[in-house]
Design a protein that fits this description.
Blueprint: H1 12-18, E1 29-39, E2 47-51, E3 56-60, H2 69-84, E4 91-96, H3 98-103, E5 108-111, E6 114-117, E7 121-127, E8 135-138, H4 143-146, H5 152-166, E9 173-179, E10 188-192, H6 232-237, H7 241-246, H8 262-273, H9 277-285
Parallel strand pairs: 1-4
Antiparallel strand pairs: 1-2, 2-3, 3-7, 4-7, 5-6, 8-9, 9-10
Helix pairs in contact: 2-5, 5-9
């Protein structure tokens, strides 16, 4: 269903200036899982798997303990992040065969004391940065190392704008990575775990001023006003309907739950929300938490 345009474009020149290079918008690849490696942490109980492109992927299965739609959420929100110029791992449609599940005894979910086998078929995969044993991957850094993360302020402010737009109802998840023994300024970062964007499987937007704030407030020290969230705010506001529609075209219908047509409505709502993100950030600024202490 085509998006109903609700406002006029601010001009081709402005759109081009605020838009990341088109080369930053690759489509998801399709790969075959060939090896179970290990379990990963998380409420959706994902697994690390090696695929036939020789890369490792963190794989979320359709029958995970949360909701089938978290796979669609991961694909859509990851594509939106990439369109805004934010660092996210490569994503893939990962086919897992019945034979591999049968051969891998640990490809099961633990649910209330019961063990449930993972379903075969097309799953969501997020590429693991580097290789285990050669790449250091952590989700927490002490302050002295966090300050040295490449493009720290830009990543976290862009992530906050994205999370407000998509109503991420989970805490912002970021992993930091670097090659073992690497010399240089510090870690690079990836935004991960977008399963609770669009409010998990509900596909609605219960906005809250205090939602989406990263607990380490030092990442917001550079904020002086709304201009600090550029170019991400302008990129969100200037997205064309065709770009949003393109972001969902190859998402498998089996990831969307029983009412698959709601995916089109979700995209329409995202288009309608583009111009609300500035106010959502201001609402967060005005809370008693004072997440942006240097706002002028």
């Amino acid at each position: 269903m085509p998006i109903r345009r609700t406002s006029q474009s601010s001009g081709a020149a402005a759109r081009e200036e605020s838009r990341p290079p088109e080369s930053a918008w690759p489509r998801a690849r399709r790969v075959m899982a060939i090896e179970f490696v290990r379990r990963m942490r998380g409420a959706s109980q994902p697994f690390l798997m090696r695929c036939d492109d020789s890369r490792l992927y963190v794989v979320k299965f359709r029958n995970n303990p949360q909701h089938a739609r978290v796979l669609a959420n991961e694909m859509l929100a990851g594509r939106l992040a990439r369109r805004l110029g934010l660092p996210v791992p490569d994503r893939a449609l990962v086919e897992v065969s019945p034979e591999l599940i049968t051969a891998s005894a640990l490809l099961r979910f633990e649910l209330g004391g019961q063990s449930v086998r993972c379903d075969p078929g097309i799953q969501f995969g997020s590429c693991f940065p580097g290789a285990p044993g050669r790449t250091l991957v952590v989700d927490f850094l002490p302050d002295r190392l966090l300050r040295r993360v490449e493009n720290l302020a830009s990543i976290f402010l862009g992530a906050f704008a994205l999370d407000k737009w998509t109503c991420n109802c989970d805490g912002r998840q970021i992993v930091f990575h670097r090659e073992a023994g690497q010399e240089g300024p510090g870690y690079a970062a990836f935004l991960i775990d977008h399963g609770f964007c669009f409010n998990d499987g509900e596909w609605n937007f219960p906005d809250s001023p205090i939602r989406s704030l990263y607990p380490r407030r030092m990442v917001y020290e550079s904020v002086r006003g709304l201009r600090s969230f550029e170019p991400y705010l302008s990129r969100i506001e200037n997205l064309e309907p065709e770009e949003l529609e393109d972001s969902v075209r190859d998402i498998p219908t089996e990831w969307c739950g029983e009412e698959t047509e709601q995916l089109s409505r979700l995209v329409e709502r995202l288009y309608e929300r583009r111009r609300r993100v500035r106010q959502l950030i201001i609402d967060a600024k005005n809370t008693t938490l004072r997440p942006f202490p240097n706002w002028e």
